[in-house]
Write a structure and sequence with these properties.
- This protein is mostly helical.
- It has a domain of 32 residues.
- The protein is built from two helices and no strands.
Length: 86
């Protein structure tokens, strides 16, 4: 009987805790403010920008990847060469 009472007490505490958490999250706040004027308020306007240069960065990244791959291949070749000499 004590085990059942202890389990019921724990279940009741868990239910109360979860109910409190759910009720706290169900509270609504103030509505968001109206959007300010700007892009696309009256018509669909093209976004300004699009001048970010990415070509140089991509080229550098590809060259670094090629150097890294070449170094790995060279090191693998050297270890295979040493294995054959032994």
């Amino acid at each position: 009987m004590k085990k059942l009472n202890k389990m019921t007490k724990g279940l009741l505490l868990l239910t109360l805790f979860l109910g409190r958490v759910l009720l706290a999250h169900a509270q609504t706040g103030a509505p968001p403010p109206p959007p300010g004027g700007g892009h696309g308020q009256t018509e669909n306007q093209p976004a300004g920008g699009g001048g970010a240069p990415i070509g140089g960065g991509v080229g550098i990244m590809i060259s670094l990847i090629a150097v890294y791959g070449g170094r790995k291949a060279y090191n693998y070749y050297q270890t295979q060469k040493q294995g054959l000499e032994e």
